[in-house]
Each structure stands twice: as C-alpha cells, then as structure tokens.
Amino acid sequence: MSKPKKNSELFNGKVDNKLCLNCGFPNRESDRHCMYCKTSLLQGGFFSWIRETYYILIWRWQLNRKRDHLNVFLKPRLSFLKTIGFLLFGLVLTISGIHLFLDALSTSSFSNSLIACLFLYYGVLTLRGI
C-alpha cells in the first residue's frame, strides 16, 4: 500500500460557494435565493437596489409604528415631567445668573459679570423653550 500524496496547497483558489450577505450561509453558485434566510443573492442592478431600499423603508416604518404604539401610554407623563424639568432648570439658571450679576456689580468684577450674563441668557432661553 502506498501512502497518499499530501496536498501542499491549502486552498486551490476555486470557490464553488457564495456566501449570503445577510446571514453568511454558503450557497451554490446557481442559487438565486439564500437557502437559510431566503434573501436574494443577485448582486447589483438598479431594480434590485430599488427593491432592497423599499424593503428597508417598509421595515423602518413598521418599527417606528410599533415603537409609537408602545409609547402612547407614556407620552402624557413624559411631556409633563419634561416641562417641569425645563422649568426648574431655567429658573435655577436665571436665579443664579441674577445672583452672580449682583455679586459682580458689588465687587466690580468684569469676568464674573460676563459669566452671570451667560447664565441669565441660557436661563431665559430655557424658559422661552417651554
């Protein structure tokens, strides 16, 4: 009995499978759809691009609709809490700006008055955003 020849070549360069871009499943060259996830294996082309874009947009629309349906019960409570949070944040910024501005006037500090004006400005903008 003779020993079989060892193949020194690890990869012969010929690939008889093509991988699915969606799931990575190996398919035959003649297949049009993946045998595992049923997605199209046809590459390129304007019509396939339009079809894939259509499916992606439909999927996003369905996902947004499901998410909006789940958040219907939380929206009134969250909007109320958001309004209260903005009101408190705006009041804190405005009051601290007034306090810092009066302190800057008493000490004649120009840099502190600039910081106080920024606090006042951001406080008023936050209160206007409600």
UniProtKB/TrEMBL annotation:
Keywords: Membrane, Transmembrane, Transmembrane helix
TM regions (residue ranges): 84-102, 108-127
Name of the featured protein: Uncharacterized protein
